[in-house]
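can u do me a favor
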């Protein structure tokens, strides 16, 4: 489950299993903190997998999640 705010995306629940029918059998996994993606800079959302500095970048930009959650 995600929140979109401008060109940002915050992921709070994710489907961790990949494949065919297993995707429908397994439930979403709730994370303690959201994963942030800047969609214009990284549209395929592989930064948390391929970059070593992703979590440092996410920590510096976590204030955007608070802005996105305001009504």
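np, heres the sequence
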């Amino acid at each position: 489950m995600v929140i979109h705010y401008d060109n940002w995306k915050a992921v709070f629940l994710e489907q961790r299993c990949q494949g065919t029918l297993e995707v429908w059998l397994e439930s979403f996994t709730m994370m303690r903190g959201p994963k942030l993606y800047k969609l214009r800079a990284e549209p395929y959302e592989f930064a948390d997998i391929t970059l070593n500095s992703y979590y440092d970048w996410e920590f510096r930009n976590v204030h955007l999640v608070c802005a996105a959650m305001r009504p």
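DSSP finds four helices and three strands in the chain. hope that helps!!
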